[in-house]
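TASK: fixed-backbone design
INPUT:
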């Protein structure tokens, strides 16, 4: 939780061979601020390895005080 994002759950899904590459599918549920989540996505996309987010779900944890989000990628 160095950047303010807490990993609630992670799950490794079925992997796929794609020619010379191997696609490793994972599902991760994060909780934290939108700024912290943006920093994580930027760090992942800036990494040497190819990173792709095919689906993302973002929910506010408290509608009256929408400072924390739950994000599933």
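OUTPUT:
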């Amino acid at each position: 939780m160095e950047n303010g994002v807490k990993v609630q759950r992670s799950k490794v899904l079925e992997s796929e061979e794609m020619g010379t590459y191997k696609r490793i599918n994972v599902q991760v549920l994060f909780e934290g601020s939108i700024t912290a989540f943006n920093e994580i996505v930027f760090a992942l996309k800036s990494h040497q390895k190819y990173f792709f987010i095919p689906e993302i779900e973002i929910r506010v944890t408290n509608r009256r005080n929408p400072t924390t989000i739950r994000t599933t990628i």
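COMMENT: The two ends are 17 Å apart (CA to CA).
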